[in-house]
Amino acid sequence: MADTFNYRIDHLGSLVRPAGLDRTDPDSLTAALTAAVAHQRKLRSTVVTDGGYPYEDFRGAVLENVAGVRRTDRTGPDGLAVWAADTLPKAEGPLAVDHARHLADLTVIAPKVTLPAPSYLAATLESPLDVRELGEALAEIVRAEIARLVDAGVRLVQLDNPLLLAGTAPGAAAAAFVGPLPYADALAVDAAAMRLDTRPEGVRIGCFPGATAPETVDRAAAERLFAQIPADRWILPLRTASAAELDLVRALPEDRDVVFGVVDAAVADLEDIDTVLDRLDAAGELKDLEDAAISPTRGFADIASRPLLTEAQQHSKLVLVETLARYVWGNEF
Questions:
Q1: If you ran DSSP here, which 8-state letter would residue 298 be given?
Q2: Which of 51, 222, 322, 328 is the most exposed place for a label (fewest CB within 10 A)?
Q3: CB under 8 Å to 8, separation ≥6 — which residues?
């Protein structure tokens, strides 16, 4: 893709929340966002996000802003609050676009917005409803919000479904995805959310399918994933350049951008630069690095109250991503 360089130095979206942030207080939130934008620009990141600051966790842009779902007082095994859907969800207005406009007022570059994938939400909500129908309702909500974001000037939108890569394991694609939602239905639901009637030049819709590749990847299943979900940009793990990780790269169509997750957002120790460059060289044998970018492997705080690193450690990781990008692409951005 010709404009990949606009987003060479990426991060998935969520950042460690600063001490004292009250996300319900507009002044507190604006002060935190202003500092976050300045920090990201100082790091020379080519994306700017709101860090997930307005939300309790990465699902918040949808779950906190639609009718028909409610937060329970329980926590699931993944550490996320359990939400339930009693009726098909309905959007009562814009979800993230107002936050995106606020963010755009604080930076000279178009912000990146991250949303939860509808199939992930449908598969993990407690509900007596038909899960495919639930997913389709959520897909329409997300699709409409993506259209609003694009109209507002956002040029990079990312959908997060951290469970999709599990379906590329041998035999996994035919099994249930999560709970009652079959994998094929999950792909169809997420695909529907990304199909815009029009997509202006330069707009990218990305997909984060998970931070860890299966031990073994079924090439046909991976090709099916990339073919059925019309994402322009895929965030794929490159933690070790394992055979499975490289098989994911092999399966990626030539006309898709790739973001390699090369810096572990959950481990404080910094990666060795030469080791990471060797991994990128291995991936570069399969995918033109001119159509690539790099990022941490995942968000730094998908749950506001449970950051994976300290702010200082996060800073060091993001500096490392910027440094690696300079080694690979020089000063073209």
A1: S
A2: 322
A3: 46, 293, 294, 325, 329, 332, 333
